[in-house]
């Protein structure tokens, strides 16, 4: 097992995560998820030994991280934090090339194979048109992709990313996550990334580390999601307390969309209604009455008139 956490208490003066036990192997893609302030970034810093454990042990390839030098940790882990210092006067190519610094003296010239690798990563991340652009002139999304490119170029067996998709639109989010999964599976990398969006796990992750109530829950994505209803429940976001939802039978995406629509627009008890998605139509029933709607707009107009 490549990364192991054993009976670890993680935090500062007080424990944020208690008695944590988890492990990941090379080739795994793991999503670290949890609300703000629960200790996700602190957990990452503990793996890097930037934050000492209050108790327990974190080991990497059988070695306690406490016994590793800064250089050994850098050789084993490439890290991208959500807020990074932007080097002045550096281009995208310059930044991504910096991933090689741990293999060379401070002043170095890339070998031919290194330059080819950097060019390939720039292309994979859809950054070709920005190759010679100064970092200060990039959008937040492309800047994030460039920092991720530097981590990939480092060629470490573990890549850890703190909120890597925060500033990315959907297209670039998918490019990044597909690239990370491809790295894990084709180059046997261990990828750990944090996010607030559990939906990413279903498509891109093998494992989940879920931090809740001072505990770290870990396992196969589908197992953890099913064990914690709040992660998949359409009513995850309550925006008004007077809304009582109806029964909804539909594919998960349609269910979530309908739930959001009704909650935003109706502050009342809708529990007497039944919604079922059939053949691209919504069939709504109340008692012996049956209604049919083709669009959400029709539902908005219909529901106030159902008595």
Automatic annotation (TrEMBL):
Return the similarity comment: Belongs to the ABC transporter superfamily.
What keywords would UniProt list here? ATP-binding, Nucleotide-binding, Plasmid, Transport
Q: Which InterPro entries match?
A: AAA+_ATPase, ABC_transporter-like_ATP-bd, Metal_Ion_Import_ABC, P-loop_NTPase
Q: Which PANTHER family match?
A: METAL TRANSPORT SYSTEM ATP-BINDING PROTEIN TM_0124-RELATED, MOLYBDATE IMPORT ATP-BINDING PROTEIN MOLC
What broad taxonomic lineage does this protein's source fall under?
A: Bacteria, Pseudomonadati, Bacteroidota, Flavobacteriia, Flavobacteriales
Can you name the source organism? Chryseobacterium panacisoli
For this protein, what is any one GO molecular function term?
A: ATP hydrolysis activity
Q: Is ATP-binding one of the keywords UniProt gives this record?
A: yes
Going by the entry's taxonomy, the superkingdom of the source organism is recorded as: Bacteria
Instruction: Cite the ABC transporter domain residue spans from the record.
Output: 1-238
Pfam families on file: ABC_tran
Q: What name goes with this protein?
A: ABC transporter ATP-binding protein
